[in-house]
Amino acid sequence: MSKQTHSFQAEVAQLLHLVTHSLYSNPDIFLRELVSNASDACDKLRFEALNNAALYEDAPELQVRVAFDKAARTITITDNGIGMSAQEAIDHLGTIAKSGTRDFVSKLSGDQKSDAQLIGQFGVGFYSGFIVADRIVVESRRAGLPAAEGVRWSSGGSGDFEVEAIERAERGTSVILHLREDKTEYLNHWKLKTIIERYSDHISLPIRMQAEAWDAEKSEYVTKPEWETVNSANALWSRPKKDVSDEQYTEFYKTLSHDSEAPLAWSHNRVEGSTEYTQLLYIPAHAPHDLWNRDRKAGIKLYVKRVFIMDEAESLMPAYLRWVKGVVDSADLPLNVSRELLQESRDVRAIREGNTRRVLAMLDELSKDGEKYATFYAAFGAVLKEGLGEDFANRDKIAKLLRFASTTQTDTTALADYKARMKDGQKAIYYLTAETLAAARNSPQLELFRQKGIEVLLMADRVDEWALSFLTEFEGTPLQSVAKGAVDLGDLQDEAERKAAEEAAEGFKPVLEKLRESLKDKAKDVRVSSRLVDSPACLVVADGDYSLQLARLLKQAGQ
Ligand code: ADP
Ligand code: MG
């Protein structure tokens, strides 16, 4: 193949422009991204080699090497992983395949400051090399292809890139960064080593650099020929908890999730019993941009005995916890397990249940910290409610974690706290759903409750109506919508009031008859109500019917 020039996909060009023109706040992350790609490539090789050991060729030990050359002003990151064919280099380094990334790019505003922030949150993978380099050359050969089918990809990071065939004996990939003039501080052993220790210590294969020694004659540090391992080189989750620092847990989370913000909480356990596995689960501090995408897969990576098996293992977490990030490493699953197989496996069911229990327990713990819990709830509270309809076994635990606005409280409240405030004789937890909280607060349905000083929970999340239909009671107390049927205030309504209401109804009989007749296509029934104090009339729905709010939603959805 002679040299060819290709254009970057429009989104890539946009991204590159941003990377190279925005003042990137943390240039160090280029190394984290490139080392993480090298490690991914080794994981992929190990996985493919399960069925084809020949792919290891004559180099079974997988590793990543980081080297620099002061004179040439380059940094080179080399792995002996899966490598890329020419076509793969064109596809993977010239386009953004992942829909998530494409969505992300479409969110870019053109405003450097806010975009830089967004990028910081997201991580730009391979293209982050252009933060420090004004030219990147990638030389690669895919495992299993002949030496003559190597490829050289090269780009200056503007509109296009070049691709040509090369001879390459070693399998795998070298990424050669030609540093920008103002980024030469990275041509330094200590600096690179520190960055690797900081961001990539948890990578499960050795990351090696050539040692340096002081040369007294030359009066400078010189690079020695030996390679030494600079990271701990064992999978973070396989280490005992006491050997992992908070900073290491946090860095691991950041690589795992492409999130620049630290997680709110994590939990790391070795689960023993009939199904044995290690789980390391994180609660992020903010929602991903595609949280509501129904195809969004779980954030769990599956390993079997430290061999990477798959990303986004949706069978390992129920959908309402799809935002949890983490790793599960199983000792029991076969290495060649497929997604289909996962769905059927009893071990997987046990792991999913164990993960669910663990996350709910973490949230229960987190709820003791008001501020952190508020952060969590703002991001994921609405998704959590889906669990009421999805996970019957854990419904009570989920209900305990929910928080609602209330007519009598300035802060949101838990159902348990509402119960503790209930009036003597009050038999139900009252709630009202509406399109917005403001609409709920102004609803005439609340008049009587206000007058009697009875607290009503106010709900305005889209899922509330649906989710609450699964929660008929909380710890023995029924939940009752104030917009449904006749409100029975039980003992809170005194006898005299009840009598007066009945007499009034009697006296209004002829009027009611007339109203029923003239509204017969529009209303099921017309009643005298004791629920209003100031307003003359209001609409309610019969018990068991869709509420007005749900009816409105269904109508919008064309049903
Ligand atoms: P991501 O790693 O999230 O997929 P990147 O931008 O970091 O995104 O990398 C894009 C793609 O380029 C990878 O998915 C992979 O297919 C390919 N790639 C990058 N670096 C390597 C490498 N060292 N070896 C093999 N393939 C690589
Ligand atoms: Mg990557």
Descriptive labels:
559 residues; alpha+beta; 9-stranded mixed β-sheet; 5-stranded mixed β-sheet; 18 helices; 19 strands; 20% strand; elongated; binds adenosine-5'-diphosphate; binds magnesium ion
Could you walk me through the main structural features you see in this protein, from its secondary elements to its overall organization?
It is found in: Cytoplasm. The protein is α+β, with helices and mostly antiparallel strands and 559 residues long. It is 35% helix and 20% strand. The protein has 18 helices and 19 strands. It has a 9-stranded mixed β-sheet with strand order 1-6-5-4-7-3-2-8-9, with helices on one face. A 5-stranded mixed β-sheet has the order 10-11-14-12-13, sandwiched between helices. The longest helix has 21 residues, at 29-49. Bound molecules: adenosine-5'-diphosphate (ADP) and magnesium ion (MG).
Sheet-strand content, in percent, reads 15-25%
Characterize the biggest β-sheet: 9 strands, mixed
Number of strands: 19
| Individual helix count | 18
CA(first)-CA(last) distance: 57 Å
Approximate helicity band:
25-40%
* Associated small molecules: adenosine-5'-diphosphate, magnesium ion
CA-based shape: elongated
**Main β-sheet, spatial strand arrangement:** 1-6-5-4-7-3-2-8-9
Structural class computed from helices and strand pairing: alpha+beta
* Rg computed from alpha carbons, rounded to a whole number of angstroms: 31 Å
- How would you classify the quaternary structure? single chain
